[in-house]
Amino acid sequence: MRRLxxxxxxxxxxxxxxxxxxxxxxxRVGVLALQGDVREHLAALRSVGADARPIxxxxxxxxxxxxxxxxxxxxxxxxxxxxxGLLEPLRAHLAxxxxxxxxxxxxxxxxxxxxxxxxxxxxxxxxxxxxITVRRNAFGRQVDSFEQDIDIAGIPGGSxxxxxxxxxxxxxxxxxxxxLATLRTGRGAGHAVAVRQGRLLATSFHPEMTGDTRLHxxxxxxxxxxxxx
Length: 229
Ligand code: GLN
Description:
By secondary structure, this protein is of the alpha/beta class. It contains six helices and twelve strands. It has a single domain, classed as Rossmann fold, CATH 3.40.50.
């Protein structure tokens, strides 16, 4: 009886606390931390108020509301994901419609299809999720990396300074995906470099490197607004 009373009191206290604790709970965003610019994404996410944490184990996927796949080397990330037992859990995470944001190599991982282009890609599989075909290293080699101001649909506050490092471009877009930004000039003119599909977001460039957190804000709002962004 006494134990029941204590339990009741405790649960009443929990109920009382609930509105306060849910309203102050930050969105939990994981960053796949096998390789690449993990720290930059964690910092950007924290600066927009998310509870950001590195992800190295499959069990950690259960405790997050969304995941960021960072820039780096997609071939290495796929290889390490397999070694760490994360490949299929990540695929399941995406197939279940859970939110994800991929930048550069992360965009490649989110693409449903790869286009080899003139150079052999070296990558044979992705995680998938976004109805696009991407071409790795499409702009050329490391020395062909560049920066450009681009316009991104749905991002307030004017153009976005985008950094492209051995970046992919979107070769073709399927009916499920929506293009948010297309390059107007240069070698990649006409190619999409930012796309969205439901609660999946992918960019060819590295928003985590500029200190401009508008895309990270968009991603967090995509998680909390249930896809409406
Ligand atoms: N070239 C890399 C790849 O194909 C991507 C580069 C990047 O993420 N900066 O995976």
